[in-house]
Known about the structure:
Residues 5-136 form the NmrA-like domain. The chain is α/β, with parallel strands linked by helices and 307 residues long. The chain has 13 helices and 13 strands. A hairpin with a 4-residue loop joins β8 (158-159) and β9.
Amino acid sequence: xxxxxxxxxxxxxxxxxxxxxxxxxxxxxxxxxxxxxxxxxxxxxxxxxxxxxxxxxxxxxxxxxxxxxxxxxxxxxxxxxxxxxxxxxxxxxxxxxxxxxxxxxxxxxxxxxxxxxxxxxxxxxxxxxxxxxxxxxxxxxxxxxxxxxxxxxxxxxxxxxxxxxxxxxxxxxxxxxxxxxxxxxxxxxxxxxxxxxxxxxxxxxxxxxxxxxxxxxxxxxxxxxxxxxxxxxxxxxxxxxxxxxxxxxxxxxxxxxxxxxxxxxxxxxxxxxxxxxxxxxxxxxxxxxxxxxxxxxxxxxxxxxxx
Length: 307
């Protein structure tokens, strides 16, 4: 029985990369290599092999990816548009077995959702690039919206500090969402599978989540954690289609914050694929669901201790 051993990661010091590196290191099953720019001051755990160089150099990229079985790419939306195709081209040139492109979000296999959110649809061309190579295989990780990042940032429409909540429609639509740590555990468990099991995910999506919840359920959990009730909050609602339309108009006028309503609104819109619990691979990966109240309590404690 064989297992994956050598994993490289680009973007290992960001919001998603940091907990993923931590989980892979703690597994003690992998030789992990972090690839970063020469000028980067990012730091990594001592057991991680760090390669610094020029992302514009094909020689550097190919030598960095050589002998790697897996390449994980986690780039910010602000990264140069040609960077990820170049990373993929270099990885396929040296036949990296599995490439995980920058997905780690909503279900882009759902064409309606992918087409509705401007920065989701271009991901298809990257998946196609990997599959067309014939030397490498794609694995696309779907985890929905990042729960802890979104709640702490107020992106679910719930502002813990200000005690305000803005709900899409009645706030009852369920959507799948995952904590950053749960995503990291899911990817780690994926590559702990025997190679014969891992092969089942070749050129496919893998789905993980912490839970499926609605805005109203999140609000109730936050109120429980803060010892508050509806009377302590300013609660409003907006038709989800109206919020999406307004957000898209703002984005097209140069206000990137408008994308929040486009992204979160579409994930909260019935029939758009925000709820993918029926596709989950949690059980196969041995990944347990998380408890909403426990997760929310930790986030609330963190926010209120900073107030």
